[in-house]
Specification:
Length: about 130
């Protein structure tokens, strides 16, 4: 039984390394391919975790859809369906370009409004 498990584990490892050589960044060595496979698995685990947190947050007050979009963004680098889902979401949200890049002016405006709100809140609670 232990030999069968080791054989299956070895075959999965070889398949992952072969897939990495075919689809990855063209690693030169097996060690580099193993490291990149580990990186992909970590990134996919993080992406799935963030998507699950977003799904849990949907009925709660808070940015559930934004959390899901963040998880899909993490997953989109490695998983084709996440990239398609993210493009679909971007098409459905008005004002978001297809590539998902937020204009610098919008980022500056959001930072300024956030800073002003935090400053007003601190002043209201501590200095009035």
């Amino acid at each position: 039984m232990a030999e069968e498990i080791d054989d299956v584990r070895r075959r999965i490892e070889q398949a992952a390394i072969q897939a990495e050589f075919e689809t990855g960044e063209r690693e030169a060595t097996v060690e580099a391919a193993k490291a990149h496979v580990a990186l992909r698995l970590a990134r996919m685990t993080l992406g799935v975790t963030v998507v699950i947190i977003g799904i849990i947050a949907l009925p709660l007050p808070g940015p559930g859809w934004l959390i899901i979009a963040g998880g899909l963004t993490i997953l989109a680098k490695d998983v084709a369906w996440a990239d398609r889902a993210l493009r679909y979401i971007r098409r459905r949200v008005p004002g978001v370009p297809e590539d998902g890049r937020i204009p610098r002016s919008s980022l500056v405006t959001m930072a300024f409004v956030t800073l002003a709100a935090v400053s007003a809140s601190v002043w209201w609670n501590f200095y009035r």
